[in-house]
Structure formats: C-alpha cells, structure tokens
Amino acid sequence: MSNHKVLSYEDNGHFIKTQSFKELFNLLKTLKRGQGRFIHVMGTPGTGKSANIYQALSQLDLNVYDAFLFIDIDSTSSEVLDIFWDTIQRDMGVTRHKEIYEKASTYDFVLFADRFLDSEYLDPDKVGLGLWTEKHGPSTFPFYFRILVEYIKNRNKLKNINVITQTAWVLKFRGVRYDILTDFGLLSRFLVFLIKQLFEVVIISYSHDEVNKIVRNHPLAGNDEEIEDYIKKYGNRPRFIFEALEKDSE
Fold first, then answer.
1. Domain 19-205: which topology?
2. How far apart are CA 38 and CA 151, in angstroms?
3. Phi and psi of 163, rounded to 5°?
4. Which of 2, 177, 215, 245 fits a disulfide with 220 by CB distance 3.0 to 4.6 angstroms?
C-alpha cells in the first residue's frame, strides 16, 4: 500500500486546489515581506494538512527550514526536549542554544510538519512527536509546558522568525483518530478561538463537492455511487479514503 503521509515536495499526488489551499497559499506568499509570524495549520486527521503545506511550498520561492525529530516511543518528556534541541542545534551547525534563534531568522520560515510529527514513516525504528504524544497522552504535558515557557521567554527573538506548525491534539477512540481542535463542536471552536488570540490559524477543511473532486482524481476511484459510499464512511478525509481505495483494490 502507498504511503499517503506527505514527507517531501515531490510526494503529493492526486492533489486538487481547494478553498483551504488557496487561503494557505496566499498566507504563505506574504512571508517574504515580514517576520515574527506564528501560523498554526489545523484540520481533522486525514484531511491532508501537510499535503496542502507542501503543495503550496512547491509553488513558492521560499527558503524553508523543515525541522525533523527522531525519538524512541518510550522517551520521557525531558528526554524528548533534550533530543529536540540537540537535533536542531546539530542540524543547523551551531554550537549554542541561543544561536538556534539567530540561524532560524535567516530562513523565510521554520516548518514543523510531517518530518517532525510523523518521522516514523522515514525511520521505522523511531517515531515522531505525533505518535509519541498519542501513546503517552497527558504525561506529555511537561514537554509542551516547557516549550510554552521557552516561547514566552524568547518572544523578542521570535520577532525575527516566522514559524509554521502543523497542529493537532489527537484523541483515538475505537480505532479512529479525532482532533480535539477540530472535531468536537463548541469545544473545538472555543479552543481555536483562544489560539487565534495569540497566533494566526488556517483550518484545512473541505466541502462535499471538494472531497468528491479530490477522490475522483485518484486513479482507483470508482463511479459516483462508490465515491459517495467512501465519503459517507470516512467523511471529508481524503487520506483515509485513498488508503481504503488501495486496500480494497488488493
């Protein structure tokens, strides 16, 4: 079965430009003109947040630092934080923590997407931050709290840096992954409202017609009735539909 997690610019087949994509594209296009932007790209698991990000980047002349992270599934919050800083410091070729901010400011923006959250698709012996968070749940709080403290302490330095992060707060129920930030009605809207007070937000979501066009563009898509059956079963989540199409064709 194909891997439908987007991990590079070239890995983005069957893409259809939607209203969400246009909003994200237009926002990223403005990053050449300023610094100090912090953008959260949100969306229900399976909607293709990273697919939209990488498709936009493939059409824009931007100098991007695409951060990555490889950790062990049983790592503690403290260990993950140490690996986080050590990885970026070593990859950027700097010798001190504070130099990371100086180096990051030389890019149009720093990206935290698939290579950071889902790096198990690149190295099956390691995991990314997403799977680690999903497994450990509330015990990951110290890591995120310390990242928040770091953000508050270094807000002056961050004024020289643009950051884009693919953001999700995943809860798994009966084998289905839900995002607390997008899948829980009033609670989700309230949480997103709070985040919007501090940061910029783009939510990747689709109309029924848009999902229909996305699925129809897949080479294994069937007739109209079959496509509608997949949409009813998996909702507006193209990645999950693509995975089901390939599994059912085996």
1. Rossmann fold (3.40.50)
2. 11
3. -130, 135
4. 245
Residue 209: C-alpha distances to residues 53, 57, 189, 212, 224 (Å) = 21, 25, 23, 5, 12
111 token code pair: 């990206």
The pLDDT tens digits for 91-116 are 999 999 889 999 999 999 999 999 99
pLDDT in tens, 1-59: 445 566 655 556 668 899 999 999 999 999 988 899 999 999 988 898 988 999 999 99
- Tokens, residue 184: 């829980």
Tokens 């009966």 map to which residue?
174
Q: Which of 169, 165, 168 is nearest to 199 (CA)?
A: 165
Task: Name 71's bridge partners.
Answer: 127
Q: Does residue 58 contact residue 17 with C-beta atoms inside 8 Å? A: no
Closest CA to 233 of 160, 176, 159, 153: 176
Name residue 115's amino acid.
Answer: R
Q: Which residues contact 194 (CB under 8 A, 6 or more apart)?
A: none
What single-letter amino acid sits at 207? S
CA distance 41 to 50: 9
Domain boundary assignment for the chain = 19-205, 207-250
Return the SS3 of 41.
Answer: strand
